[in-house]
Amino acid sequence: MKIIIAGPGCPRCTATEENVRKACAELNLDAEISHCYDPKEFVKLGVVITPAVVVDGKVVIAGKIPTVEEIKQILSKK
Questions:
Q1: Which domains does the chain have, with CATH numbers?
Q2: In the structure, what pLDDT confidence band is assigned to residue 39 with cuts at 50, 70 and 90?
């Protein structure tokens, strides 16, 4: 599973990345997690508003800081 956090590096984006990492750890997922900081890449990923979480090429969360529980629910369906 490949997870990308899209955002310019603001506190909201950092919090989103932390929550994604916590959710993956709690689910024992061996996911490849990266952070995209380039607005030009956001467009290629289909991201309109940040922070966003992209899982295997699909935007699953955008415009808010997801809770660890929200992320776990999304990832457990994958």
A1: 2-76 (3.40.30.10)
A2: very high
